[in-house]
Predict the 3D structure of the following.
Amino acid sequence: MAGLRIDRCLCFGRTFAEMRAAADATGAQSVLELQEHVLFGQKCGLCHPYVRRMLRTGQTVFDHVVTAEDEPLWKGEVEREEGEG
Ligand code: FES
């Protein structure tokens, strides 16, 4: 069985590497801030914990599942209300 390889927001097809480049270029430090520059994460939201870890560590390819329990919202961080705006 092929190993697990998670490297993007599946709903929008944007890679974490692409998001990291955008974060580096813009200084975005949270999912919400990054969403101002890259279209991702506005459907199922399963990519959010991966993006938080990418922002924290720079990792862009994951061979294991990362959940919201593994990467909870940071202190003071807010998430967009889905369906709003
Ligand atoms: S995987 Fe990113 S919103 Fe679904």
The beta strands are 8-9, 14-15.
